[in-house]
């Protein structure tokens, strides 16, 4: 005699084993249609495959490290460039920290980044301004040279 639980799971006249198969057929058909007839490891064969592999190995061995080193260096000089652009009065110290960060594998770089974006607190009280006008690639020196030439011509 069937208990209530068995009757509830399998009502008389139903075939529960048939229902899971009905839902599985579309997935089986999709997998069969999507599977390739033949699998190929590469589009190239023979000598062409060897030449392509040789080229990829040269790129991986020579070019990838060079590009990685250049990208690492460019990222590490960003705080220095930011400090120069913002005319930070401690640009030379930030530049030194960037160089030290290159030596120590980038551990000091976040501090240099924060330092470049920060405003010096006591610099304005000591020097009257929080911007250094002499920082740059010779912008201040060019004006000094012109003034020296004018003075030299007058004397």
Query: Termini separation (Å)?
Result: 127 Å
Number of strands: 0
| Structural category | mainly alpha
Mean pLDDT across the residues is 78
Query: Roughly what fraction of the amino acids lie in strands?
Result: under 5%
Give a written overview of the molecule.
The chain is an all-alpha fold and 155 residues long. The chain has a domain at 56-154. It has eight helices and no strands. It has helices at residues 4-9, 18-34, 47-76, 78-85, 91-103, 109-117, 123-127, 139-154. Helix 4 (78-85) runs antiparallel to helix 5, helix 4 packs parallel to helix 6 (109-117) and helix 5 (91-103) runs antiparallel to helix 6. The chain is elongated and about 105 Å long. The termini are far apart.
